Amino acid sequence: MSGVSLPPAGGPPGAPEADPPPGTPAELALEPEAADERGTSLWRGAWRRLRRDPAAIAGAVVVAAFVLVAVLAPLIAPYEPAGAQWANEVTPSSVPGPSDDHLLGLDSFGSDLLTQLVYGARQSLVIGVVSTVIGLGFGAALGLLAGAFGGWVDVAVMRVVDIMLSIPSLLLAVSIAAVVGPSPTALMIAIGAAQVPIFARLLRGSMLGQRSSDYVLAASSLGLRRRSVVMSHMLPNSLSPVIVQGTLTLATAIIEVAALSYLGLGDPNPTVAEWGRMLVRAQDRLATDPHLAVLPGVCIAVSALGFTLFGEALRESLDPTFRR
């Protein structure tokens, strides 16, 4: 019929254009990040998000610099730690400042200040990492028992954890270090013991959330033993928040190392450089030489900030609720 005109294919004139159906190239173009992460693993997607996060990059740079300084301390430091061969240049009223031989000057005992700061980074890193590993290992073991068996085992383990959580972490660390005696081993045990309940509750809660997962129910319905279900399915999928917490706990461990050293519970060897001990030595010269306390304080704050920034960014990249 030649007299009948058909409407255009897109609908009547003046009608709004229909939204493109889901999954079309137009929608994918609007959400490039979501399209890029389809079909990727959890850690690969987290790595992509970390590379785009300025806070993660800044934290990673600070952490990398801190680790490099600690590892390469013998090559970076111009002198041996706690070498007081310049003690005769220190007077009760003044401390020599920066010079060609000492870039940051001397401390109140006649040691090179730059050398003390560099070797203090090594001491803080070693004690912080070992104490975090101790806390993570024992805490993960308790959380694994509570989350895997449940019942009376869960109740008994969590009551012990609750008792430990009722004591402030720094007070618990001070008590243990005082009983064991001033030494690096005492610092590691004290700080690690204070971190045990944190990791235990975190892993236990994560594993309880995995119990009702489809893959766990499917594995149980296939007749797999509880040990296989726990170790092969529940535990690997519950470790992400524990790893993130380990990164954040390193920042706390560095601060606690300095705090315990400040209280006189660190290494009794005077030749060992510690940031907390440097703060103690600088107390009498805050009015005349404040840089003796400011520099180690800045090192403590910046290193802790680096681990905190990186840990928070890692947590957000692994947590689905933070993904945009």
TrEMBL record:
Pfam annotation, one family: OppC_N
Name recorded for this polypeptide: ABC transporter permease
Keyword Repressor included in the entry's annotation: no
Compartments, record wording: Cell membrane
Every ABC transmembrane type-1 domain range: 121-311
Residue ranges of the TM segments: 55-77, 125-153, 160-180, 186-203, 242-265, 293-314
Source organism, top-level taxon: Bacteria
Entry membrane topology: Multi-pass membrane protein
Location of the region described as Disordered in the Swiss-Prot/TrEMBL record: 1-37
Major subcellular site: membrane
PROSITE patterns noted in UniProt: ABC_TM1
Family per record: Belongs to the binding-protein-dependent transport system permease family.
Pro residues bias (residue ranges): 9-24
Keyword annotations of the record: Cell membrane, Membrane, Transmembrane, Transmembrane helix, Transport
SUPFAM superfamilies: MetI-like
InterPro entries in UniProt: BP-dependent_transpt_permease (IPR050366), MetI-like (IPR000515), MetI-like_sf (IPR035906), OppC_N (IPR025966)
Organism for this UniProt entry: Pseudokineococcus basanitobsidens
